[in-house]
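The instructor's notes for this session suggest beginning with a concrete chain rather than abstract definitions. Hand out the sequence below and ask the class to guess, before any prediction is shown, which regions might be ordered.
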Amino acid sequence: MKNFEISVLDLAPVKRDKTIHDTYQDSLSLAKYVEDLGYKRFWLAEHHNMESIASSATSVLIGFIANGTRKIRVGSGGIMLPNHSSLIIAEQFGTLESLFPGRIDLGLGRAPGTDGLTAQALGRNPAIINEQFPKQILELQKYFSKENSDALVRAIPGEGLDIPMYILGSSTDSAWLAAELGLPYAFAGHFAPEQMEMAFNIYREHFVPSKYLEKPYIIACVNGVAAETSEEAHLISTTLYQAFINIIRNDRKPFAPPVVDMDDIWSPMEKSMVLQKLKFTLIGNQKEIEEKLKSFQERFKVDEIMINSHIYDHAKRLESYHIFRKAKNSVFGE
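After discussion, reveal the predicted structure:
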């Protein structure tokens, strides 16, 4: 079985009865904790107009996390590129890389990270998104290149810096693009698992080596909830279930504490919908997580598993990532 790296996706989750300041302090605490555990990278995702997620100013938050850590890679999972000008993102990430050399990743997606009305407020034009996104990636590569030093428009800081770029996807569309451009590919299996396997196959089969990457590199993002006992893991995972119910109901309220019985909250149809979206979620005690990691990796053979963990109690969230680290080490005898 192919070995893999282990990383973190953080949405800066806002919890009921907690402030956004509390959220950011918890994110920093988590980043420091997983850094000490040997996690490879810590990514933050751009979302807008959601009371439950505070990572809208993603570049600013990346700087906060990078400044509070020492060696873990910090980046975007992702920047929703059509929400921004390519030049602004080149300058922002050029600034971050200049402040924290060798530690900044730039993950790029095309989705709005929000609802339709807010997408309009962000200045997006849905009619040109599919054409705009690949064009913007090429613009970023140009702005980061040394050869752009003679251009009339330059990214300073940014020019000449080695900032790894990753294509994000939640369907097969971005798999084709990542393969064509020869860039690493990250799939959002934590909320859109239906096409993940097909997307990986497309990316591998059509990958074209580039100056950025010689062979395919795949990151699979999944939800993970681990605890000392299986019973506790399933109890604290009800925060995750409630978060998905809120998405289905278009209710963006902060994350809720665990509940004993989800049947008091969801309907049979909602339950079916949630469980379908969470089909690759890893829940359990350490032994169960070991088996689920092995099963997942035997099927998908990825280079990296990125774990998103919606757990209400911060101490239990830290412990969950500790159990995942121990489970991964046990699987590979590390």
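Then share the key points. The chain has a mean pLDDT of 96. The chain has one domain: 5-332.
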